Amino acid sequence: MRWVTATPARSRAILLGAAPLAVLALGYVIAAAARHADNPADKILPLPGAMAAAMAGLLFEADPLSGQYLFWADTIASLWRLGLGLGLATLSALLVGLVLGVLPPVRATLGPLVTAIAVVPPVALLPILFIVFGLGETAKVALIVIGVAPFMIRDVAGHIAALPHEQVIKALTLGANSWGVMLRVALPQAMPRLIAALRLSLGPAWVFLISAEAIAADVGLGYRIFLVRRYLAMDVILPYVVWIALLAVVMDFVLARASRRMFGWAHLGAR
Amino acid sequence: MALLSLKNVWVEYGDKVVLERISLDIAAGSFVSIIGPSGAGKSSLLRVILGQERPTRGRISLADAPLPAECGPDRGVVFQRYSVFPHLTVLGNTLLGLEFSASPFTARLIGSARRAAIAEAEAILASVGLADSMNLYPAQMSGGMQQRLAIAQALIKRPRILLLDEPFGALDPGIRSDMHKLIKQLWRDHGLTIIMVTHDIKEAFSLGTRVLTLDKRRHDPHAPHRYGAGVVYDLALTRKQADEAADPALTAEVNVGITIDTVGNN
Questions:
Q1: Cβ(A133)–Cβ(A97) under 8 Å?
Q2: 10 Å Cβ neighbour count for B129?
Q3: What's the CA gap between A224 and A222, in Å, rounded?
Q4: Contacts of A170 in chain B (CB under 8 A)
Q5: CB contact under 8 A, B83 and A188
Q6: A-interface mutation test, from B85, B94, B142, most A Cβ less than 10 A away
Q7: B181: how many CB neighbours lie within 10 A of its CB?
Q8: Are A190 and A263 in contact (CB under 8 A)?
Q9: Are the C-beta atoms of A175 and A247 separated by less than 8 Å?
Q10: Which residues in chain B have Cβ-Cβ distances shorter than 8 Å to A177?
């Protein structure tokens, strides 16, 4: 048996994948316990019990000032911004990416512009967004869109442009016009790639969301983390980070399942 | 009378001459095989007839009307690979040609028109032997089945000319001989006019009613790109029908009439 061909069975793979996570959690608990043995008032590595207590307050008790359940208000605000930003980015990637990919004259005209926008670091544009859109929701959503849309557009356009030219010729001999090629040949084949690009964009999108919330917000997961940082409140920061990771994993999983269910043909070769 | 005629067609890329002085008349109902060494412009000739490329010089006419330099439904094509759409089932791939012409805006059919189209597609698929595979995707099929589908897809448009670009080149020998029987059957049943580019000389002679050989007539060792290829052999194969019926295999007696460069002038 060689390592390169030793593919583990599904149940075994789950077990193997869970092991490092368990080791990490155990290592944390041991380190936290050691620190608390030295100094019972340690704030840097809070024990699970302290995290549970701190989170219970945010989860189940309304904030006396605003009357909101802070954890849920943060989650809803962040997910709303993220969803809106990713939705707009996905829509623009589909429309612009499709047109760029299918029509060579449009690609020649707009391709360099998209590339130029894509190489600008989005966070460097954040001050401009704040100046133009103010400190409200628009600037945060705009940062996510500007941050991920160029990558998604280029990915979808590149994928469509790389479809075998024979497909286009074949469609034309079947009586299609340019619109028909776009609608029946390019669009369906762009969809699974669009979902793949969206999955890859989840990470950057979270980065831009947390950055924008850290700088100017009054609610949101990133806002809360940066707010409680002032009090060294690791018992809130760590559960929030885990929660963000969990949300990201669930989104990724749902998108992967959706792609398999809706565009099964694209996953036939991977079996 | 000729269905397709090329008059003094040249194809040049920059100062590289690929094809020169191609003059051909192709009769309706003929099965023309094009052979020749690699780089002799076989595929370029096919692309020009397909309308994918415009000849640098010369005229091409289809049924006496000048051929527009763009692809259209009057010329069907089957490539060696990538002829079928991976996101559509066998039935969907076959329906596509009918859908494009039926509604230019949505490119879809609904209701009774769709049912009629499905019946037509099913008949064509049965004739290429894919009746039991309607709902498979191309990724689930062998190379031979994909080429059967590509042929069905082209036939449903009832093209004036069917162009085959090394259609069986990627298939293994057993499948290939099945495909030879199929294409010959379809050619006869549908009264097709076929132009096929191939590397396989045996295939060219066993299927074709006429074999064209493309090669360079002249060669300049200091500037090999300055002379393009032309038709160096134009062989009309006339078979006795009785022989055909008795033994349609490759051993059929072939009366070969060789005319070297009938139309060009050396």
A1: no
A2: 14
A3: 5
A4: 77, 79, 82-85, 150, 153
A5: no
A6: B85
A7: 12
A8: no
A9: no
A10: 104
From the list B84, B100, B139, the residue facing A175 with the nearest CB is B100
Q: Do A167 and B82 touch (CB under 8 A)?
A: yes
Listed in order, the ranges of chain A carrying CATH 1.10.3720.10 are 47-267
Per-residue pLDDT for chain A (271 aa), expressed as one digit of tens each?
788 988 889 999 999 999 999 999 999 999 999 999 999 989 899 999 999 999 998 989 888 888 889 999 999 999 999 999 999 999 999 999 999 999 999 999 999 999 998 899 988 888 898 899 988 889 999 999 999 999 999 999 999 999 999 999 999 999 999 999 999 999 999 999 999 999 999 999 999 999 999 988 899 999 999 999 999 999 999 999 999 999 999 999 999 999 999 998 988 865 4
Whether residues B87 and A263 touch (CB distance < 8 A) is answered with: yes
Q: Is the dihedral of CA B83, B86, B92, B98 positive or negative?
A: negative
* Whether B96 and A268 lie within 8 Å, measured CB to CB: no
Token pair, residue B39, equals 């780089």
B161-165 and B31-35 strand pairing: unpaired
Nearest CA in chain A to B156: A174
- CATH code 3.40.50.2020 for A47-267: no
In chain B, the residue whose alpha carbon lies closest to the alpha carbon of A168 is: B83
Best residue in A170, A178, A195, A267 for a mutation probing chain B (most B CBs within 10 Å) = A170
Residue with more model confidence, B245 or B235: B235
* CATH number for the domain whose boundaries are B1-74+159-266: 3.40.50.300
One DSSP character per residue, B118-176 reads HHHHHHHHHHTT-GGGTT--GGGS-HHHHHHHHHHHHHTT--SEEEEESTTTTS-HHHH
Task: Tell me the CA distances in angstroms from A115 to A98, A103, A120, A202, B236, one per residue in order.
Answer: 16, 17, 9, 20, 56
Calculate how close chain B gets to A259, using CA atoms only, in Å. Answer: 13
Task: Say which residue the tokens 């010369």 belong to.
Answer: B58
Check CB contact under 8 Å for A167 and B139: no
Distance from CA of A262 to the nearest CA of B (A): 11
Q: Is the Cβ pair B72, A173 closer than 8 Å?
A: yes
Q: Closest approach of chain B CAs to the CA of A190, in angstroms? A: 10
pLDDT the model gives residue A208 = 94
Q: Write down the domain spans for chain B.
A: 1-74+159-266, 86-158
